[in-house]
Design brief:
By secondary structure, the chain is an alpha+beta fold. The protein has one domain: Gcn5-related N-acetyltransferase (GNAT) (Aminopeptidase). The protein contains 4 helices and 5 strands. Strand 3 and strand 4 form a beta hairpin. The radius of gyration is 14 Å and the shape is globular. The N and C termini lie far apart (40 Å).
Length: 133
C-alpha cells in the first residue's frame, strides 16, 4: 500500500534516486548535489509517495498559494507507474497549494501524453526562456 506524506522532508540523495528511477533524472542536474539541495529547500510544496521505507514518487512545486502553482517535478519510479500514484501526487499538490490556484507545468517529452489522461488541459500559450547552462 502506498502512503503519501505532505510534511516529510527528503534528502538530496533520496530525491536524485527517485528522479533517476522515474527517468526524470535525465532532465535534472542530478550530478550537482548543491543544486539539488537548493531545489528541495526552495520548494513551497513537497509531496512524497512511499512503499514502506522506499520513496517511490515525489511532487515538487512552487506556489504563491493564492493564484498559481508551478509543478516543477512529478516523478514516479518506473516500477510503480500506472498505479495512480502520479495522479494522486498531483491532486495532493494542488490541494496543499490551494484548489483556487491554477496548477501549471511543463511536461517532460516522455510525459506529454500522460497529463491529458489525468484531466489536465493542454495550453498553447506557454513561453520559455531557457536557462544558461
Amino acid at each position: 500500500m502506498i502512503h503519501y506524506k505532505t510534511k516529510r522532508k527528503i534528502t538530496p540523495e533520496e530525491f536524485i534516486d527517485v528522479l533517476n528511477r522515474s527517468t526524470l533524472g535525465e532532465r535534472r542536474p542530478v550530478e550537482d548535489d548543491e543544486r539539488m539541495q537548493q531545489m528541495l529547500v526552495s520548494a513551497d510544496v513537497l509531496i512524497t509517495a512511499w512503499d514502506g521505507d522506499t520513496l517511490v514518487g515525489v511532487s515538487r512545486a512552487l506556489s504563491d498559494f493564492s493564484f498559481c502553482t508551478y509543478l516543477a517535478d512529478l516523478a514516479v519510479d518506473e516500477r510503480y507507474q500506472q498505479q495512480g500514484i502520479g495522479k494522486t501526487l498531483l491532486e495532493l499538490t494542488h490541494e496543499v497549494a490551494g484548489l483556487h490556484t491554477n496548477l501549471i507545468l511543463l511536461a517532460a517529452p516522455k510525459a506529454v501524453d500522460y497529463y491529458p489522461k489525468i484531466g489536465m488541459k493542454r495550453s498553447e500559450v506557454c513561453y520559455l526562456k531557457e536557462r544558461n547552462r
